From TrEMBL:
One of its GO terms (molecular function) is dynein intermediate chain binding. This is Dynein heavy chain 8, axonemal. It comes from the Eukaryota. GO terms for cellular component: dynein complex. PANTHER family: DYNEIN HEAVY CHAIN 1, AXONEMAL-LIKE PROTEIN, DYNEIN HEAVY CHAIN 5, AXONEMAL. It comes from Trichonephila clavata (Joro spider). Residues 22-265 form the Dynein heavy chain C-terminal domain.
Length: 269
């Protein structure tokens, strides 16, 4: 319990003048930078909510203020290692409070590195509030880089790389982005053949190698040997958790994977 209060105090100064200045220096009108600013705003809201609740809980425990129903519910959730309802509402779902705080730290680290060390060569898509918006910003960025291109005629494309770990990547792609953190459910990836294969027995989720996502100036159809794999934030597949679709090469009829219910998940916790 003391550790959680300490984390709340430490996080109070995370979003500072230095962060705002770094965002300004990066170029405020670039699509990716606009996206980053929105993400940091949302992270700031999460931190402020957590800090406010923890400070109020401390005061209530000390007897300085009255322990109302909302604070009592939050305290009970913390003691049971659950994420308080209000925290989950402004942030993300997580099975335990420990996982939630770990992800809070990891998300914060990604944003801080992005701000102070420049644009990363790879992006942890699971640590973004709005991954769909991130991919849209990428398309906008590619469109602006080519004279005569219009966003309406630009389509998202992707290629599964041979990189299994972000540390293997030394530089960003010429266009588009490298993303990681996706896991296959219902199938696995044959890195040598560069295509889908049957899932490994007794393995529910298998990590997908880093993905290069980019854009082309075309709206034409795709290859018939490609499975359009849906990507979801969570194992619960709903319209609210849907992110995008990723093209995965298949040596068999793509309908095989549709019947298998194959999907990509950005969070398996």
């Amino acid at each position: 319990m003391c550790l959680i209060f300490q984390i709340g105090k430490e996080k109070s100064n995370k979003v500072s003048f230095q962060v705002r200045r770094a965002l300004q220096e990066m170029g405020p009108l670039e699509p990716i930078n606009i996206f980053l600013r929105l993400e940091i705003d949302r992270m700031n809201k999460v931190i402020q909510t957590v800090r406010s609740d923890l400070l109020d809980l401390q005061l209530a425990i000390d007897g300085t203020i009255i322990m109302n129903d909302a604070l009592r519910d939050a305290l009970e959730a913390i003691y049971q290692a659950r994420v308080p309802v209000l925290w989950a509402k402004v942030s993300w779902e997580s099975s335990t409070l420990g996982f939630w705080f770990t992800e809070l730290m990891e998300r914060d680290q990604q944003f801080r590195r992005w701000c102070f060390k420049g644009r990363p060569s790879t992006f942890w898509i699971s640590g973004l509030f709005n991954p769909t918006g991130f991919l849209t910003a990428m398309r906008q960025e590619v469109t602006r880089a080519h004279q005569g291109w219009a966003l309406d005629s630009v389509s998202q494309r992707n290629k599964v790389t041979n990189y299994r770990n972000p540390s293997e990547v030394t530089e960003s792609p010429n266009e588009g982005v490298y993303i990681y953190g996706l896991h296959l459910e219902g199938a696995s990836w044959d890195i040598k053949a560069g295509c889908l294969k049957e899932s490994t027995p007794k393995i529910l989720f298998e990590p997908l190698p880093l993905l290069h996502v980019y854009a082309i100036n075309s709206t034409s159809g795709k290859s018939p040997d490609v499975y359009e794999c849906p990507v979801y934030k969570k194992a619960m597949r709903t319209d609210d958790t849907y992110i995008t679709s990723i093209d995965l090469k298949s040596e068999c009829n793509p309908n095989h994977w549709i019947l298998r219910g194959v999907a990509l998940l950005s969070d398996i916790k």
